[in-house]
Design brief:
The chain contains six helices and two strands; from the N terminus they run αββααααα. It is mainly alpha-helical. The protein folds into two domains: about 15-70, DNA Binding (I), subunit A; about 100-180, no CATH class. A two-stranded antiparallel ribbon has the order 1-2. α3 packs parallel to α5 (about 150-160) and α5 crosses α6. The longest helix has about 45 residues, at about 80-125. It is rod-shaped and about 100 Å long. The termini are far apart.
């Protein structure tokens, strides 16, 4: 140290050092190791370089390696432990599984709703059925945007105004798109 400069660090007394060791069970609070396999030291939770004090509540038992690894970083700045990262990853996996279940329930419901629209079309235009692709694409899109009630209503309007079953579906699509755009249906 250069002459005239005073050290920022005040020495920790042996008495205080052993009070902290006893409080922490002579165990590194970061990795759980204890003597004789490691040499214990005292670490400042809030580093001296960041105005941390020698108050007993700012001191923790640490092994040599953990203390050097932590250096003068605040605990809030330390990267998560492997266990924390693992737990976070498990949580993401669980959330993804639940999201996928929800998506499957939504797809199943929309498929059932598409079949309801197809059934109504069959009742309104006997002996006619929708092509699967029309149900999977167009009817599904209309249900997602308008909801089942509005789509069923559109089918009833189309069938009540048009006699040709081929044209009913074209008119049905026109009504649905008009509703999606917010046009008034008369």
């Amino acid at each position: 140290m250069a002459e005239g400069k005073k050290s920022l660090r005040e020495p920790i007394s042996k008495k205080l050092r052993f009070e902290v060791f006893k409080r922490d069970g002579f165990t590194c609070q970061y990795c759980g190791q204890h003597p004789p396999s490691v040499t214990l030291e005292i670490d400042h939770i809030k580093p001296v370089s960041k105005k941390g004090s020698n108050d007993v509540n700012n001191l923790v038992t640490s092994c040599f390696d953990c203390n050097r690894g932590k250096s003068n970083v605040l605990l809030t700045e330390i990267t998560p432990t492997l266990k924390d990262s693992y737990n976070a990853r498990l949580e993401r996996v669980d959330q993804l599984k639940e999201f996928e279940k929800l998506q499957k329930r939504i797809r199943t419901k929309i498929t059932k709703d598409c079949n309801k629209v197809d059934k109504l079309y069959g009742e309104l235009c006997p002996n006619w059925v929708m092509k699967e692709q029309f149900k999977r694409v167009s009817v599904r899109k209309f249900i997602e945007k308008l909801g089942l009630h509005e789509v069923m209503d559109s089918m009833e309007i189309a069938a009540s105004k048009i006699n040709d079953p081929n044209e009913v579906l074209r008119y049905f699509c026109g009504i649905c798109w008009a509703k999606i755009r917010g046009d008034e249906i008369t």
